[in-house]
DNA sequence: TGAACCGATTGAATCGTTTCAATGTGAGTG
DNA sequence: CACTCACATTGAAACGATTCAATCGGTTCA
């Protein structure tokens, strides 16, 4: 029913091998024949069946990316970096969305394994070491983005969360804040652990002040709203004078709730966000935030991935980028 | 080198046909055998080669989505709707990003055609009717999202842009604005055409006032900044007293630039955005915006797509959803 | 003139799974 | 006891492209 090489071959008056060559090794076919084949392809609307091609070739040029949270501008910025690095390389990028859901993450890793992709960029949610190993053993290159895997057996690109946590906290201390609520979770994320740990250490080192953790199941605007509401429920004397939000989405939620409640930012409570996404600067009160080089991270991870694809035995490398503090009105009047 | 059915079969002491049945038609295999096969699969780390499966089966369960602009929360919200509708259906969603680039759009449509996906959701950028037809002729179901194709031969789900344009403009007129700059482009997008056209008609019908178009090559925050700067360059008497931004990203850029320039919003210039994305309410001055039911659109498009997959001859249907105006501080003090 | 060589083309084998007609094995029935 | 019938299993064919050794036809050169 659907045209295949056979049909194209017949119409062009050549063999199927020649059609294939015209498609994949044009230099092996005389210009005249090539032309006839092209004509026949156009006439029949022939589209090669990639399954057959891939089965025979044994490889798939595509690169897969499992995005942790597509609604978070930070991750879409990472994706932008990936695409930029990939442009002109001739490898399509297919994306899947885990949405922090471990089951979906597993399902997509399995799908990518079945598809025998050349490479996969992943920001793992749960325990997927076994799947990543299987993927690698099947010949798929892997680079971990925005994480370091426990076993460190895969190359990774991440941003120094400890430094980020220190920068934010140090800044809050510098502007005179002492009661800092760290808002966001879940706590098991290494991100959270490192940023929070650094905050605690910074305060400790400073000698005065305190940090406490307000957990949340997710890291979105709603989590910020809920967390801020919980803090407002505290008796005035026990409220924080600063909130360190685990990312900018949370910070925006916090800002919204505080503003609605008549709390003055930064006078009553200062807010520091994390990521410095595109919306941080456009917020009601422009957010002080820890800028993560998201685009650069995506590009670096992709560069590394392409190297691993070329040489599967390339040695494992962990690239760690540095964040920087961007001060805006949410912490200084 | 890599385990295949043959190897699993040998280890489990059965034939390859039985292994395949254990995988795809478990009810045809006795529990004991099924168990042995599972064991062998686990032991060998066997992952079926999807290319071979697909070649034989002739179908691919996956659904593809070509996202127009992954950095725009509106489209990620649409994607969320798609995922929600798809959850539990057992069809993986793979996404590709055209980023408004017609070449990339074509490349991904070709990739999806080669992959023989079950269905594709697409928000077309350029002239792709021929490719969509070819895709359909190859047996891939297609639903157009947030557009109606010229020829109307594909089912679509969109939002009434004329109504949206009318709502926004009527509101601006109601709050006493008369000089309205419509900011955003490119003009060839039907979106833009309809919203702008409706704005012009609303003003005309009202009897007084004027609307003019400030074009932009893209619809992002930067476009808003640039457009607003251009408007500020006008002599005070020729400046608008309201800006109708083609989407919220543009509106945020406008807001940023106006605020930095000391223009009072809404006193000097009112701003209406479009989409009512998650960040509109959290903006420096909360944005009045035309809310588009993005999640619902994604869900509806997916529902339609699943129907077309079931019955390729299902009749073409155009679902048009209605936007609604959300009034916030950027238009009323 | 014949051998050597060259580029273009052919066509059968191949990739790894699924499918399906055929076969085997008991259990149940008259 | 012979005969069905149901169920489990087998094994070879098939999916549609690519590959590669073999062939073809023509040119060049000794």
Q: What is the largest interface, and how many residues per chain?
A: A-B, 53 and 53 residues
Silhouette of chain A: elongated
* β-strand amount of chain A: 15-25%
The helix fraction of chain A, in percent, is: 40-55%
The side-by-side strand order for the widest beta sheet of chain A comes to 2-1-3-4-5-11
CATH class of the largest domain in chain A: Alpha Beta
Q: Which ranges of chain A are low-confidence, i.e. pLDDT below 50, for 5 or more consecutive residues?
A: none
CATH architecture of the largest domain in chain A: 3-Layer(aba) Sandwich
Domain HTH lacI-type (chains A, B): 3-57
Keywords (chains A, B): DNA-binding, Transcription, Transcription regulation
GO molecular function, one term (chains A, B): transcription cis-regulatory region binding
Pfam families (chains A, B): LacI, Peripla_BP_3
Brief account:
The first copy, chain A, is α/β, with parallel strands linked by helices and 333 residues long.
Primary descriptors:
homodimer, 6-stranded mixed β-sheet, 3 domains, HTH_LacI (chains A, B), 6-stranded parallel β-sheet, transcription regulation (chains A, B), alpha/beta, 333 residues, Rossmann fold, DNA-binding, 434 Repressor (Amino-terminal Domain), elongated
């Amino acid at each position: 029913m659907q045209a295949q090489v056979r049909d194209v071959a017949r119409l062009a008056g050549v063999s199927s091998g020649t059609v294939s060559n015209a498609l994949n090794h044009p230099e092996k076919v005389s210009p005249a024949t090539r032309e006839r084949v092209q004509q026949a392809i156009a006439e029949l609307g022939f589209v090669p069946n990639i399954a057959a091609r891939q089965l025979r070739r044994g490889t798939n040029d595509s690169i897969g990316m499992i995005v942790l949270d597509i609604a978070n501008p930070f991750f879409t910025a990472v994706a932008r970096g990936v695409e930029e690095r990939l442009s002109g390389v001739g490898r399509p990028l297919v994306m899947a969305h885990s949405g922090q859901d471990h089951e979906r993450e597993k399902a997509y890793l399995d799908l990518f394994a079945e598809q025998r992709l050349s490479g996969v960029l992943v920001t793992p949610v749960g325990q997927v070491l076994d799947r990543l190993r299987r993927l690698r053993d099947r010949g798929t290159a892997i680079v971990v983005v925005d994480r370091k895997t426990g076993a460190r057996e895969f190359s990774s690109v991440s941003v120094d969360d400890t430094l980020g946590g220190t920068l934010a906290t140090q800044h809050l201390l510098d502007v005179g804040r002492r009661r800092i609520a760290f808002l966001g979770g879940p706590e098991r994320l290494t991100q959270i652990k490192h940023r929070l740990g650094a905050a605690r250490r910074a305060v400790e080192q400073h000698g005065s002040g305190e940090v406490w953790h307000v957990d949340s199941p997710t890291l979105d605007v709603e989590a910020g709203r809920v967390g801020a509401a919980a803090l407002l429920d505290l008796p005035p004397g026990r409220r924080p004078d600063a909130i360190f939000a685990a990312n900018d989405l949370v910070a925006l939620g916090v800002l919204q709730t505080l503003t609605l409640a008549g709390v003055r930012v930064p006078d009553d409570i200062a807010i520091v966000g994390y990521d410095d996404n595109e919306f941080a600067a456009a917020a009601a009160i422009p957010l002080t935030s820890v800028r993560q080089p998201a685009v650069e991270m995506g590009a670096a991870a992709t560069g590394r991935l392409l190297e691993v694809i070329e040489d599967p035995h390339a040695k494992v490398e962990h690239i760690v980028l540095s964040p920087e503090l961007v001060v805006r009105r949410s912490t200084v009047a």
